[in-house]
Specification:
Layout (H helix, E strand, L loop, with lengths): L4 H39 L5 E5 L12 H8 L4 E7 L1 E3 L1 E3 L13 E5 L7 E5 L7 E5 H7 L6 E5 L5 E10 L11 E5 L1 H9 L7 E6 L5 H12 L3 E5 H48 L1 H9 L4 H41 L13 H27 L3 H4 L11 H24 L2 H32 L5 H12 L1 H39 L4 E5 L12 H8 L4 E14 L2 E8 L2 H7 L4 E3 L9 E5 H7 L6 E4 L7 E9 L8 E5 L13 E6 L5 H8 L9 E5 H44 L1 H9 L4 H37 L12 H27 L3 H5 L3
Parallel strand pairs: 5-10, 7-9, 15-20, 17-19
Antiparallel strand pairs: 1-11, 1-12, 2-11, 3-5, 4-8, 6-9, 7-10, 8-9, 13-21, 13-22, 14-15, 14-21, 16-19, 17-20, 18-19
Helix pairs in contact: 1-6, 1-8, 1-9, 1-19, 6-9, 6-14, 6-19, 8-9, 11-12, 12-13, 12-14, 12-21, 13-21, 14-19, 14-21, 19-21, 19-22, 21-22
């Protein structure tokens, strides 16, 4: 090892990068989990016991009444009981647009003055047109005491005067980047809950000497089973557990990409030890002839792998801690720079996984070359032709069987929607393709190399890349994994985009779509029914239809429901066809479903079904008509417009406009847009822009996956550099002879560069082919989920090929310089 330090650095670096990803994932999630736990503990620090109405599934809970608060106050041991009001309140910035967050809530409440919020400047609101705002909202929106602020609540935009700014203990602007505002109690009740004398919850403070648990039990006994009574500590734990559940899934995603990086690292370590063992064949044969056993030869190579894995794990763990801290700080900054991070710690899971993964991966990759070296007879190994090319028949047959096994697992995985089977099938398929790669390398490398072999250095570079198909195959396979995954995802996302565009063109016969942003459940942008009437009466509008939406329960089954304003207009705009019954306006006791749902539930026209809406008691509806299966409105239940009164919000959430034939759509859009001037969340778009907005999220997903897979591709690039560097050392005498017979340094560098580019492009072509196969198979499996069109990202795939060629040039720089600098006489004498 001491004599091969430089040769082993790059192989160790690939393990370092993979381990860094693993340990960094654990450090990041551990830090964030403890940070959120601390945050919620702080948020509920002043809450001894909390009382809230118990929510029945599928039904909006009824707010608390003043009588309930009085009942709580009468319980022995209660020092105080304060009614809390809370609901959605979206602030509008000075630019007229709603201020958004990176996932943190936007809410309003009543100002009680009894919480942990402290007034930083100004005073509490006293009049109906006054509010006090959180410090983070003030700094984000540029608001000061005395400014006006407009807010969207259950009612349309209203403007208030800011009388003060409040903060949290320690001078914190917010707890987690939330945008908050507080009204007077009557105004908060009307705007946030929609009724007077209503409360969301009651915060109870215990008298001295009274434990929280005992007080909780007393309050629960007084109020009965219709209320949720919990201690502040319980609420803090529930909130933290909910966040941590999401972080656990996030951690699984990161570990998945770390696994891909390590999988690629195995190819590099395998190649590195294969080359090193090949270079040491004569040395190992001398040891065997002096009496070393096969076990000692294997042991020496495996011990080297153990030490390299150990050192790489230590370095990777340290680097992972740094990466975890960096990502945690980035996450905190995206949370509004107000999530106070807990102290950085290294969880035991990070330490164990780092050493287990780093050492095991390295040793597994080194075992095969070690076994191969031990099988060479000592006398044969000491001859010049000690390592002749072995036939590829066995490895090719094995590869074909492994690919078939992987494909079978993928098929079962798609059929049963089993993620373990799908991921396992992909992994096995990659291994199979890697085993088939040596057979493919000679013809493909020769074909690719012809494009670059217009000169003698280029011809030699092409032949060098084809002379050892196993080595070239492993190097290319490392690059193949990353590119195939990105290509497969690109095919799926391109197909999804093409499917949405075709769907919009064929089944969405509407010219304008009116919709808005909605961050959280119950916070979607909406507008009132009379605004839709104004849209219908706008010059150039032929028809307009809108709906309110909500979740409804049928037994224990949750369904998405829409209350439609104009069923005949909807029929025309969505190209709905009747399956049974006539598509006509629904009576108050009727509803309609799609053919697929009717078949699944066993419903037909005339069937009676009991549905639980958010408000009120369960209601019985009769199936009025069933429309033929279509990808639009798939899975929705259509209710009459009157049902919207029992939704959490009866306002219109989405509307569609058909313009009069021959009328310019853009002109009508300009006339409709001013109707929503008081609602900055609502946008009016034509169909093409709406589709573009829907599909733009796919670009974001692809970018994130490209960033996460960039590490795997970086490790593959290191593999190309490593292979070329070791190859240059192995061919030292050969390079010396080429220089001796007249090859210039520039020609040597060009030869190495061609070799590198050929290997990189071969890996990219292989990745594109495998990625296309995976992508097409996934699209076929997702046909029933709405991806009906196959789209191929030709431009993206061409870019990957260009990037692979550039990678080849960059990877060749250091090995080419080393080869060009060889002393000719020393190289010829090299052993």
């Amino acid at each position: 090892m001491l004599s091969r330090k430089l040769r082993l650095v790059l192989s160790a670096l690939s393990v370092v990068l993979g381990v860094m990803f693993v340990s960094g994932s654990f450090v990041l999630t551990d830090t964030l989990q403890r940070s959120f736990t601390d945050m919620f503990s702080s948020a509920y620090a002043n809450v001894d016991v909390s009382v809230s109405p118990k929510a029945e599934e599928g039904k909006q809970p009824e707010p608390l009444t003043p009588q309930a608060i009085a009942d709580v106050k009468s319980v022995p041991g209660v020092a105080s009981a304060v009614g809390e009001v809370q609901g959605s309140a979206r602030p509008i910035g000075k630019n007229g647009k709603v201020i958004t967050t990176s996932g943190a809530p936007r809410f309003g409440s009543n100002w009680t003055g009894t919480g942990q919020e402290k007034i930083r400047e100004g005073r509490a609101p006293a009049a109906d047109n006054e509010v006090i705002v959180g410090a983070y909202l003030a700094s984000t929106g540029g608001f000061q005491v005395g400014d006006d602020i407009s807010l969207l609540t259950l009612e349309p935009k209203k403007t208030f005067k800011i009388t003060g700014v409040y903060e949290y203990p320690g001078g914190r602007e917010s707890l987690a980047g939330e945008l908050s505002v507080a009204f007077t109690e009557p105004v908060a009740q009307q705007l946030l809950l929609g009724k007077k004398d209503a409360f969301s919850s009651v915060t109870v403070t215990a008298a001295d000497g009274r434990s929280d648990d005992a007080l909780r039990d007393s309050v629960a006994a007084k109020l009965g089973s219709a209320y949720d009574v919990k201690t502040g500590a319980t609420l803090a734990k529930e909130q933290a557990d909910q966040i941590n559940e999401g972080l656990t899934f996030f951690n699984y995603v990161l570990l998945g990409f770390a696994g891909i990086a390590l999988f690629v690292g195995i190819f590099i370590i395998l190649n590195t030890f294969s080359i090193i063992v090949a270079q040491r064949t004569r040395e190992l044969a001398l040891l065997r002839s002096m009496g070393a056993s096969r076990g000692q030869v294997i042991g020496s190579v495996v011990l080297e792998a153990f030490v390299i894995g150990l050192i790489a794990s230590i370095v990777g763990l340290g680097a992972g801690v740094g990466v975890g801290v960096l990502l945690a700080n980035i996450f905190s900054s995206f949370s509004g720079a107000s999530l106070q991070l807990a102290s950085i710690g290294v969880p035991l899971s990070a330490v164990i996984s780092s050493f287990a993964v780093g050492i095991v991966v390295t040793m597994v990759a080194a075992v095969m070359p070690a076994l191969r070296a031990s099988r060479i007879a000592p006398v044969a190994a000491m001859r010049e032709a000690a390592t002749p090319d072995r036939p590829l028949t066995k490895i090719t047959v094995t590869g074909a069987l492994v690919v078939a096994a992987g494909g079978t697992a993928l098929g079962f995985g798609f059929n049963q929607a089993s993620l373990p089977l799908i991921f396992g099938g992909i992994l096995v398929a990659f291994v199979g393709v890697a085993l088939l790669t040596p057979m493919l390398s000679k013809p493909m490398v020769s074909l690719i190399g012809r494009l670059l072999s217009w000169s003698m250095p280029g011809l030699l570079g092409r032949r060098n890349s084809a002379r050892n198909p196993r080595r070239t195959a492993i190097t290319a396979a490392a690059l193949m994994v990353g590119i195939s995954l990105i290509t497969g995802v690109s095919v799926v996302l391109t197909s999804a985009t093409a499917s949405i565009e075709k769907l919009a063109a064929g089944q969405l016969q509407t010219d304008l779509i009116i919709s808005g942003e909605g961050q959280m459940e119950g916070e979607g942008a909406t507008f009132q029914r009379d605004v839709l009437t104004k849209v219908e009466n706008t010059d150039g509008v032929s028809s307009a239809v809108g709906w309110a939406s909500d979740g409804v329960l049928q037994g224990e089954s949750q369904m998405f429901a829409i209350a439609v304003t104009d069923v005949p207009a909807l029929k025309e705009m969505f190209a709905l066809k009747p399956k049974s019954g006539d598509i006509a306006p629904l009576r108050d006791d009727q509803f309609a479903v799609a053919e697929e749902m009717a078949t699944e539930k066993g419903w037909s026209v005339g069937s009676t079904v009991t549905l639980q809406l958010a408000k009120g008691e369960p209601r019985t509806y009769t199936v009025g008509f069933v429309w033929a299966t279509t990808q639009v409105l798939q899975g929705a239940v259509m209710l009459p417009e009157s049902a919207a009164g029992s939704f959490r919000s009866d306002q219109i959430g989405q509307a569609f406009v058909q313009v009069t034939p021959g009328t310019n759509v853009a002109d009508v859009q300009k006339r409709v847009e001013p109707l929503f001037a008081d609602n900055p969340e609502i946008t009016v778009q034509d169909r093409s822009r709406f589709v573009q907005q829907m599909t733009s999220q796919f670009d974001t997903v692809l970018l994130m996956i490209q960033i996460l897979l960039a590490l795997a591709i970086l490790i593959a690039v290191l593999g190309v550099i490593n292979t070329l560097a070791l190859s240059v050392i192995e061919r030292t005498r050969e390079l010396g002879l080429l220089r001796a017979i007249g090859m210039r340094r520039s020609q040597v560098m060009r030869m190495i560069t061609v070799e590198s580019v050929v290997i990189s492009v071969f890996g990219a072509v292989l990745g594109l082919a495998v990625g296309l196969a995976l992508g097409v198979a996934t699209v076929q499996a997702l046909k029933e989920q709405g991806i009906s069109e196959l789209g191929l990202p030709w431009v993206t795939m061409a870019q990957y090929l260009v990037v692979a060629a550039v990678v080849g040039v960059v990877a060749a720089i250091l090995p080419a310089i080393r080869a060009a600098r060889l002393n000719v006489l020393d190289a010829i004498a090299y052993e």
